[in-house]
Amino acid sequence: MRYILAVLVPPAAVCRLGCHTVPPILVFWLAALATLFLAPAWTLVWLGLAAFFWVAATTWAVLTMRAVAADSHEAPHSNRHRHMDPERHFPGEGEIPLEE
After folding, report:
1. Which terminus of the chain has fewer CB atoms gathered within 10 Å of its CB, N or C?
2. Transmembrane ranges (predicted)?
């Protein structure tokens, strides 16, 4: 059901999954709608541009849904397993080199 919603209204499909991804998806989806409704003529160029924006928003929503599903199931290809711990850039107080 959520994948059908991702095709029809991509921002609504990911609203509860990753709300930080909603604004860029919303921008692409609104650009598709604006291109459809504000185009001077429905020529192949304008319809192609609207389709590009809509496919971009849908693809981003589907990728977000798959990433959330992989994270929740602890899959080996999950983003949680592909992170690196940062190295320490500054020494602690006890590790400051002594100047001679």
Report:
1. C
2. 29-56
Q: Return all residues near 67 (Cβ < 8 A) that are at least 6 apart.
A: 18, 78, 79
Residues 64, 89: contact at Cβ < 8 Å? no
pTM: 0.69
* DSSP designation for 90: S
Provide DSSP, 28-66.
HHHHHHHHHHH-SS--HHHHHHHHHHHHHHHHHHHHHHH
Q: Which two tokens stand for residue 18?
A: 């990753």
pLDDT at residue 30, rounded to an integer: 93
- In whole angstroms, give the CA distance from residue 46 to residue 38: 10
Give per-10-residue mean pLDDT for the chain (100 aa). Answer: 87 80 89 91 90 94 85 66 62 63
